[in-house]
TrEMBL record, chain A:
Pfam families: BPD_transp_2. This is Urea transport system permease protein. It is found in: Cell membrane. One of its GO terms (cellular component) is plasma membrane. Keywords: Cell membrane, Membrane, Transmembrane, Transmembrane helix. The lineage of its organism: Bacteria, Bacillati, Bacillota, Bacilli, Bacillales.
UniProtKB/TrEMBL annotation, chain B:
The keyword Signal applies. PANTHER family: ALIPHATIC AMIDASE EXPRESSION-REGULATING PROTEIN (PTHR47628:SF1), PTHR47628. Residues 1-27 form the signal peptide. The keyword Aminoacyl-tRNA synthetase does not apply. This is Urea-binding protein. SUPFAM superfamilies: Periplasmic binding protein-like I (SSF53822).
Length: 362, 418
């Protein structure tokens, strides 16, 4: 029975056992964490979903996006709009009346319904990624030029959201909701349920990305990272594969944003800005670009470090965190996963072949 | 093969360690239940000391303003502790950094309430940070003292507002300007919630009190090029520029205004976010003669203020200045102390009940907690910047003004904020 169930997990037998134990441990997390810590941990896991998607395009596709804050934010706003409407009851959201409009804008209407809001929270960022990807990759805009475009996207969207205060809540963002389907966010039951939902979403996102990178499409994607022209000579159109990966990545960022809002209870334009977008890339870089598990570890470790260090040294935590960044960049150029691989190589110099170390883990 | 499986194992081990580590971290803290029970825990878990949270931006763009407020709050706590504490117990401040980031404010507020079980939190500056913390305090039945003037239209049962609401700063200053400096007004503000809401109120007031709106401009936060705005001001020929710019933009605006040859003699400007601290940054020579509306200046003439300024400078350096939000943060700690002593407990509900009508001789003069909306009665003051960077008071309301965050007592404000 258990063995059958474990066949769902890919890889060798040892690998399966390791994963099963790990997932079991994660499932037991609510037992040994206070509700507050569990909430924080859930937030880190939600952000890890974005990191996996970002790693898909950066680690495997060689596309550096400094605009993932936007996709994240769009997903977050979608669910926040639903929650805000729920919290406002029959009247319009409070910030609209301050800003001088008396009727709900038409595009807010669909967000009254949870399934619609949920789907739009994934589809809108995915569609935006699709459009951006389609027009840039097809025109062979690559490398740093694409990265600059994603930064421009951030500027445009943030300015729009700040400026249209009557529609978006301006710099304050959307906040002031306290329950979903009548379950208060503060109850430990809700927290545990959200934890498992978020954990399940992360596992699905991981398996999806794993499936993609191991598929033929993933191989073409990786090949076009290393030699785009060669891929083209072989008769493939790299732009289609890149656009596809970028769209998936955008959708995952949207999902991540939705789960983030459920934990944090606020979304504002500052969270989709340039600094958070760069921070997201840092998670992947620190964890180990090109290994999906590295992206997850990077997101969780870095955010946990941010919270932990700022609690321990509220007045000097940025210096400590900055020092750690420098140390990581200098000592571990390929991130935490790279460090691990190096340690393994040192201990197993005689046993293992170099090849096995270099090959990247899924 | 062996290598691969070892690598996998290693990964798993490190992940497991991580999970366990975070588990251990959380174990150290008192494990308790969640919602609503914070009030009780705060009284019981205090033991020798009473814990309070201090939650301001100690890093990021807002740090320059908020660190001074934190200093003033710590000064008040130190004074109270030296005088024997509260209910015979010493106050233990727990510092957290909001990092100028609104979700961080929400996260740290949750940490202070749920992990540290603090009896009260003093913190926040921007409206956005307050809005982010509000649901956290309401859900955990915590107590927040918010020390900055703001746009009103809010009254949370879990927040005490020790800064001014609109009828204690903006509304009376507009009336004074219309009576003394002319009718044509130009509204200039940073593009965010406070200026937009403030200007909405001012526009309704101008209509009711016979003023005339000749222009309205918003610039992004941190904007530094005001040449086009100044050209527009020149064309509109206002009597008054009502300035709700925030932060660095003020430096740029006033410098460029002076460079354009416009001085305070040619044009009256009144700012609501320029205090002594900002004057230090902009330069007294540039701001000389310009006006501001607040409830407190370092020059405010009360015996309490003399002592306060002396103590603040003695602790933090003679080059430091005090300003309105700094004073409001200092006052907040004493108001909380008075309420706790009256209640005989740090239980949030009891403290709230006891706080109604509590009076305190603050540096700004007598303040009283309003029983209905948890704002405080404050004296309104209009000041003019002098060559020394200090304000000279031109007018004050004579007595503390009753807070009216929803402007219910002003017929023209009907419909602004429901």
């Amino acid at each position: 029975m258990i063995m059958n169930w474990m066949k769902l997990i890919p890889g060798s037998r040892t690998r399966r056992i390791v994963w099963a134990v790990l997932i079991l441990l994660l499932c037991m997390a609510p037992l040994f964490m206070t509700p507050f810590r569990l909430g924080l941990f859930t937030k880190f896991i939600a952000l890890a979903i974005l990191a996996v998607g970002l790693d898909l395009i950066w680690g495997y596709g060689g596309i550096l996006s400094l605009g993932h804050g936007v996709f994240f934010g769009l997903g977050a706003y979608a669910i926040a709009m639903y929650l805000k409407l729920e919290a406002s009851g029959s009247s319009i959201p409070d910030f609209m009346s301050w800003s001088g409009i008396n009727a709900l804008p038409f595009f807010w209407e669909p967000f009254r319904y949870f399934p619609v809001a949920f789907l739009l929270g994934i589809l809108i960022p995915a569609a935006l990624a699709l459009i951006l990807g389609y027009f840039t990759f097809r025109n062979r805009i690559v490398g740093v030029y694409f990265t600059i475009l994603t930064q421009a996207l951030v500027m445009i969207v943030v300015t729009l959201f700040v400026g249209k205060q009557e529609w978006t809540g301006g710099t304050n963002g959307l906040t002031g909701y306290r329950d979903i389907f009548g379950f208060a966010f503060q109850d430990s039951g809700t927290k545990i349920a959200l934890y498992f939902i978020t954990l399940a979403a992360l596992i699905i996102a991981y398996l999806l990305c794993r499936y993609i990178v191991n598929s033929r499409a993933g191989q073409v994607l990786e090949a076009s990272r290393d030699g785009e022209n060669r891929v083209r000579f072989l008769g493939y159109d790299p732009s289609r594969f890149k656009t596809f990966a970028f769209t998936v990545s955008g959708a995952l960022a949207g999902l991540s944003g939705m789960l983030f809002v459920l934990q944090v209870g606020i979304i504002s334009p500052s969270m989709m800005g340039i600094v958070p977008s760069i921070e997201m890339v840092l998670w992947v870089a620190l964890g180990g670009r090109g290994t999906l598990i590295g992206a997850i570890i990077g997101a969780v470790v870095l955010n946990a470090a941010k919270t932990g260090i700022s609690e321990a040294y509220p007045e000097g935590w940025l210096l400590v965190l900055g020092g750690l960044f420098v140390a990581v960049v200098v000592l571990m150029p390929s991130g935490l996963t790279g460090l691990w691989n190096r340690i393994v190589r040192i201990f197993y110099r005689q046993g293992g072949s170099e090849h096995a170390v270099i090959r990247k883990e899924g | 093969m062996r290598l691969r499986s070892l690598m996998t194992k290693g990964w798993a081990i490190s992940l497991v360690c991580m999970v366990l580590l975070s588990g251990c971290l959380s174990e150290k803290e008192p494990a308790t239940t969640t919602s609503g029970s914070n009030t009780q825990a705060a009284t019981e878990a205090s033991g020798e000391t009473i814990k309070v949270g201090i939650l301001h931006s100690l890093s990021g763009t807002m740090a320059i303003s908020e660190v001074s407020v934190k200093d003033a709050e710590l000064l008040a706590i130190e004074e109270i502790n030296a005088a024997g504490g509260v209910l015979g117990k010493q106050i233990e401040p727990i510092l957290e950094d909001g990092a100028s980031d609104w979700p961080t404010f929400a996260e740290k507020a949750g940490k202070l309430l749920q992990q540290n079980k603090v009896a009260a939190v003093f913190g926040g500056w921007t409206s956005a940070s307050r809005k982010a913390m509000l649901p956290v305090f309401e859900q955990n039945n915590g107590l927040l003292f918010y020390p900055v003037q703001y746009e009103g239209l809010e009254s949370s049962p879990n927040i005490f507002y020790t800064g001014a609401t609109t009828n204690q700063q903006i509304v009376p200053s507009v009336t004074w300007l219309l009576e003394n400096r002319g009718k044509k007004m130009f509204l200039l503000g940073s593009d965010y919630v406070f200026p937009r809401t403030a200007n909405k109120i001012i526009k309704a007031q101008l209509e009711a009190e016979g003023g005339q709106l000749v222009g309205e401009e918003y610039t992004p936060l941190g904007h530094t090029d005001y040449s086009t705005v100044i050209t527009k001001i020149k064309e509109a020929k206002p009597d008054i520029v009502y300035n709700t710019l925030n932060g660095d933009s003020n430096v740029a605006f006033f410098k460029q205004l002076k460079d354009a040859g416009i001085t305070s003699k040619d044009l009256t400007t009144l700012s609501v976010s320029v205090a002594e601290e900002e004057i230090r940054g902009i330069g007294a020579d540039i701001l000389e003669g310009h006006l501001a509306a607040w409830n407190y200046y370092q020059t405010t003439d009360t015996p309490e203020n003399k002592t306060f300024v002396e103590k603040y400078k003695a602790k933090y350096g003679s080059n430091r200045v005090t300003a309105d939000p700094i004073e409001a943060g200092y006052t907040a700690v004493y108001l909380w102390k008075a309420a706790v002593e009256k209640a005989g407990s740090t239980d949030v509900d009891k403290v709230k009940e006891a706080a109604k009508g509590i009076e305190f001789a603050a540096p700004e003069g007598k303040v009283t907690v309003d029983g209905d909306n948890q704002h405080i009665y404050k004296t309104v003051r209009i000041g003019e910047v002098g060559a020394d960077g200090q304000f000279k008071e031109l007018w004050n309301s004579g007595e503390p003004v009753k807070p009216d965050p929803y402007l219910k007592s002003y017929p023209w404000a009907a419909g602004l904020g429901e």
